[in-house]
User: What shape does this take?
Amino acid sequence: QVQLVESGGGLVQPGGSLKLSCKASGFTFSTSWMYWLRQAPGKGLELVSGMFLGDTAIQYTDSVKGRFAISRDNAKNTLYLQMNSLKPEDTALYYCARDMSGRIRGQGTQVTVSS
Assistant: This one.
């Protein structure tokens, strides 16, 4: 059974940083594309970043390029998202997912950027 458990969200001031984690189980994590998506209040799911096999293939949506960094530790079956220079518009529920549509995703972790 696929399980994805996100953690690391919280309340942060604009310009601050957070690092999200996603612990995966129930599938072969090391050879899987993995994604971060987010859903802001009143909006649909947005693909933030995706990663495959280390740094051989990494994608970012334009609004987070240069501020967010995706990484993974295959030995720990864990996906990360380092978020720097956070803006109020980054406020959302963040999910990790096995597919870019978010059909198979965790329960999410809330990120709120506010002064």
Summary: The CA atoms of residues 4 and 24 lie 5 Å apart.
